[in-house]
Amino acid sequence: MSKLPNVTTSIFTVMSKMATEYNAINLSQGFPNFPVDERLTDIVARLAKENVHQYTPMAGYPPLMNQISKLIQSSYNRIIHPELELLVTAGATQGIFTTILALVKENDEVIILDPSYDSYESPVLLCKAKPVRVPLNNDYTPNWETIEKSCSDKTRMIIINNPHNPTGKILTETDFLQLNILLEKYPDIIVLSDEVYEYITFEEKHISAHTKSFLIDRCVMVSSFGKSFHITGWKIGYTIAPEYLMKEIKKVHQFLVFSVNSISQFAISEYLDVVDVNLLGKFYQEKRDYFQKLLQNSRFELKPCEGTYFQVASYANISNEDDVTFCKKLITDHGVAAIPISTFYSDHKDQKLIRFCFAKDNFTLESAAKKLCEI
Ligand code: PMP
Ligand code: GLN
């Protein structure tokens, strides 16, 4: 009997595979297609010949852990204790899975805000706990009233994703105020804050869970170097949690992964001395603006995008088909791959919305837009 009977191949895999099969321009799965910073590839090339190929300590290569601590301090003015509160993970996916496995027990409830990224529900189910999927408002802001109504003594965790995949929405000070009020009413609830796009925000600044004192003792924060350094295939990220939670997270980590691949830890540790993460927002804002301009005369209606490298678009003016069918035809008939938004909802509600990834070189964006404008 399957432990995850309703889980099928992820939509990102399905769409990317189809894009390859039909030789379509792949704006579906979120990954950049431009070259990685040469300073980083040069570091890796040099390191490959050095003594960097054996296990690092379980929680991470200590110089990298110090570098991450410095990054947190410079980004958010928060001082963490790397040896107690930090774990280097094989991507944010592993950080999320390990955190849920370590902290959620049978019959606990975990609040997941829909539309939601696909990594949250399965680990909850594997813990024999209950995912409680709560819809965001129509403008993708959290509905704190509904969230509160969904909380009970059984609620163990609320998962927030900020900036938000797929909608590009970011949380505001008011949201954190509401979250604080809620957490005061439910002292046993902890927060899992997925901030993999923390450095990719545009007009408004990202507000990290790191900056909220009420969250320091009860929040696990996950991030990904894959997103920040355009290296999604390296699968490396980090998780930060208060010591009492991190102790439990490390217990699972040491049997799930033990330690993350060494050379990428050495390389990123050096790279953090030269890279400026604060340039990322501007870089992707230019991509977003360019992509939006290219699609200006198309029949797609573009939704607001405050962060991440995803653009949600409505095709209601083009077709009445459901979004999965529409995305498949977009590949087969028009040569562009996108992600149907219904797959981010537990009830797969079709709203005629699709997600494009604009983390692509300008030629790719131009070629895709040309095709999209012809529809
Ligand atoms: N969370 C969100 C919201 C994501 O979009 C992704 C996709 N990369 C992840 C987590 C997983 O990150 P990683 O590739 O580092 O595992
Ligand atoms: N985070 C990526 C996205 O949203 C997908 C990563 C994956 O395929 N697991 O497109």
From TrEMBL:
Pfam short name (any one): Aminotran_1_2
Q: Which Gene3D superfamilies match?
A: Aspartate Aminotransferase, domain 1, Type I PLP-dependent aspartate aminotransferase-like (Major domain)
Q: InterPro entries in the record, alphabetically?
A: Aminotransferase_I/II_large, Kynurenine-oxoglutarate_AT, PyrdxlP-dep_Trfase, PyrdxlP-dep_Trfase_major, PyrdxlP-dep_Trfase_small
- Coiled coil location: none
The entry's protein name is Methionine aminotransferase
Molecular function terms from GO: transaminase activity
Q: Recite the UniProt keywords alphabetically.
A: Aminotransferase, Pyridoxal phosphate, Transferase
Cofactor(s) it depends on:
pyridoxal 5'-phosphate
**Which stretches make up the Aminotransferase class I/classII large domain?**
24-372
